[in-house]
């Protein structure tokens, strides 16, 4: 159910019955009882149990620690013969090892019920927030609004999400009134892509399409289109074979109606000092645009010069930049502005122990409902991936890379005599589900990239990222389900993905959640590119502004008991709009 996925809630239907408590610890509100079966079924499919979390090749870390590389390799070769060697026709070899998974301690999670009005407002607020949203999230929001809430879109919703505006125009016929957004819609009609980019690929796609925008241009107003003609001239000219007279008219009108591009100073915040007459740009900016600008200044103030840029398709590239003196005054200016606009004085927040949420800048950079860059701490940590064949890949490979070398299927299974970094073993078939883990403990001292590689399967396959506290190695399991921080389903954007980075601290381990396509960062050894990528990511995420730091600066206070909080940020309470609700104007 889409409302459960986004908000841990369903649409309310009045009931006088008592709330229901399931065996799994879900407390279903009275007005949500109509969907009891669907709710239980949804969470059963969404949540991994103790056995799922331990569908590893080897069943304990002590096996990895005490076995030689030769012994581990012999088991692995037997597995390969039973899978690739037999074309997956026979019984798959998995070492017979003792597995004793601890019983799960019951924790309670409330499933709420929202009225039609409340659910409508929650959906629209996400679309109006200006936060970049994943396509899947946009589709879910539109489906809830139209299919479940019978909402009819108009022209006055003030929706700011660019992709949502295009989908609403295409699916429901409510066309954008903004000239740029309208032209984006025209490009979408021709290319099935809403990106407004003057690239050869887009130009060729327009030329190859059969779409003639002449009628739409006339209805919208040729004078309005002339305002942006010179800015996007190659794209307009690509339509000339479809409607030459209309394009010629727009071209002539552009000589009188052209409007030059006005640059938003927030886009130049790392190089040009903000002035008081720029304040109207800040007033009209979304909270997330302001956070992005603040973070950009902060990282450069702290000496970062190598940057990992994540582009819209989820891939990335590395680039080194010089630091301008504008970042210091702009950082102070932005912080003072935020304190005035978002006064959180007296507001109480509960934040979970051993978790440091990153400052949210885009839902596209969430993993589940958790912002990219969030950190998880523990004396030891286990980080892994769970997948099933039906999710698009049979064989995924987890690995860790640091200055000491690589730990993974085609390398060592452990670093250090005490197993500072260990690998659980290579699974090449997930017909019944499979997991691979890296286990880091206090002997690990080098920043370590954690990567996933699609060995056999689709580049856009799905998998779950798993993060949990580690434990003593002398137990008969790999992951204690009671030590789980998070499990979140994600989709790969290319064959190699950087899941995150282990950043050891003095007395504990830290895992930074990233999950983006490697792009130019593609690494399989200690190349100069991989070392630059590691350095850039370490600089970027070792000391960023955290969500906790920001809210405290804005006047909030944290409490140890979630019952006393105005905002409960427990990991199992997070909704798609949890961070958004804090910064509503």
Q: What does the model show?
A:
By secondary structure, this protein is of the alpha+beta class. The protein folds into four domains: 2-48 and 107-148, no CATH class; 58-104 and 374-543, no CATH class; 173-257, no CATH class; 266-302 and 322-338, no CATH class. It has 19 helices and 24 strands. The protein has a seven-stranded antiparallel beta sheet with strand order 8-11-22-21-18-13-14, with helices on one face. A six-stranded antiparallel beta sheet has the order 15-16-17-12-19-20. Strands 1-4-3-2 form a four-stranded mixed beta sheet. Strand 9 and strand 10 (370-371) form a beta hairpin. The mean pLDDT is 90.
Please give the structural blueprint:
Elements: H1 2-7, E1 9-11, E2 20-21, E3 26-28, H2 36-46, H3 61-66, H4 69-82, E4 109-114, H5 116-128, H6 135-148, H7 162-172, H8 179-191, H9 200-208, H10 214-220, H11 222-229, H12 233-238, H13 244-257, H14 279-283, H15 287-301, E5 306-310, E6 316-320, H16 327-341, E7 348-350, E8 355-356, E9 366-367, E10 370-371, E11 375-378, E12 381-387, E13 393-402, E14 405-408, E15 414-415, E16 421-423, E17 434-440, E18 448-457, E19 462-469, E20 484-491, E21 496-502, E22 509-517, H17 528-541, H18 547-553, E23 557-559, E24 567-568, H19 578-582
Parallel strand pairs: 1-4, 3-4, 7-23, 7-24
Antiparallel strand pairs: 2-3, 5-6, 8-11, 9-10, 11-22, 12-17, 12-19, 13-14, 13-18, 15-16, 16-17, 18-21, 19-20, 21-22
């Amino acid at each position: 159910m889409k409302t459960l996925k986004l908000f841990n809630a369903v649409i309310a239907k009045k009931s006088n019955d008592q709330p229901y408590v399931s065996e799994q610890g879900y407390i279903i509100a009275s007005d949500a009882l109509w969907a009891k079966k669907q709710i239980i079924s949804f969470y059963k499919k969404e949540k991994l149990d103790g056995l799922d979390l331990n569908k590893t090749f080897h069943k304990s870390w002590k096996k990895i620690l005490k076995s030689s590389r030769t012994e581990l390799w012999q088991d692995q070769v037997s597995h390969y013969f039973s899978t690739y060697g037999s074309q997956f026709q026979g019984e798959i070899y998995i070492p017979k090892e003792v597995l004793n998974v601890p019983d799960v301690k019951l924790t309670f999670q409330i499933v709420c019920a929202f009225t039609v009005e409340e659910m409508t407002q929650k959906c629209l607020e996400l679309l109006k927030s200006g936060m970049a949203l994943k396509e899947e999230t946009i589709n879910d929001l539109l489906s809830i609004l139209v299919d479940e809430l019978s909402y009819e879109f108009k022209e006055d919703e003030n929706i700011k999400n660019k992709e949502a505006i295009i989908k609403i125009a295409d699916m429901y016929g409510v066309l954008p009134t903004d000239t740029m957004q309208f032209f984006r819609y025209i490009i979408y009609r021709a290319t099935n892509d809403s990106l407004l980019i003057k690239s050869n690929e887009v130009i060729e796609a327009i030329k190859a399409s059969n779409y003639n925008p002449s009628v739409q241009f006339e209805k919208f107003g040729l004078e309005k289109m002339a305002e942006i003609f010179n800015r996007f001239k190659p794209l307009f000219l690509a339509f000339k074979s479809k409607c030459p007279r209309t394009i010629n008219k727009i071209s002539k009108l552009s000589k009188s109606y052209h409007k030059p591009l006005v640059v938003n100073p927030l886009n130049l915040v790392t190089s040009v000092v903000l002035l008081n007459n720029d304040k109207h740009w800040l007033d009209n900016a979304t909270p997330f645009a302001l956070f992005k600008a603040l973070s950009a200044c902060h990282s450069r103030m702290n000496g970062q010069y190598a940057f990992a840029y994540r582009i819209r398709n989820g891939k990335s590239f590395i680039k080194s930049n010089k630091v301008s003196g504008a970042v210091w005054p702009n950082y102070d200016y932005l912080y003072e502005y935020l304190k005035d606009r978002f006064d959180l004085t007296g507001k109480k927040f509960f934040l979970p122990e051993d978790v440091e949420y990153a400052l949210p800048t885009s839902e596209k950079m969430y993993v589940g409902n958790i912002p990219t860059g969030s950190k998880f701490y523990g004396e030891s940590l286990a980080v892994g991936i769970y997948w099933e064949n039906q999710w698009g890949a049979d064989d995924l490979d987890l690995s860790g890379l640091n200055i000491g070398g690589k730990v993974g299927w085609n390398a060592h299974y452990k670093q250090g005599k005490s197993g500072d970094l260990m690998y659980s073993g290579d699974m090449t078939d997930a017909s019944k589900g499979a997991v691979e883990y890296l286990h880091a403990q206090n002997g690990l001292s080098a920043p370590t990239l954690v990567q996933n590689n699609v060995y056999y399967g689709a580049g856009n396959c799905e998998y779950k990222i798993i993060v949990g506290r580690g434990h003593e190695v002398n137990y008969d399991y790999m992951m204690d389900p009671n030590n789980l921080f998070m499990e979140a389903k994600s989709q790969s954007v290319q064959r190699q993905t950087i899941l995150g980075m282990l950043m050891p601290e003095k007395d504990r381990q830290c895992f930074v959640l990233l999950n983006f396509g490697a792009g130019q960062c593609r690494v399989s050894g200690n190349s100069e590119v991989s070392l630059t990528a590691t350095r850039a990511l370490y600089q970027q995420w070792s000391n960023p502004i955290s969500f906790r730091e920001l809210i405290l600066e804005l006047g909030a206070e944290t409490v140890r008991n979630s019952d006393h909080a105005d905002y409960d940020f427990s990991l199992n309470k997070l909704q798609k709009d949890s961070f958004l609700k804090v910064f509503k104007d």
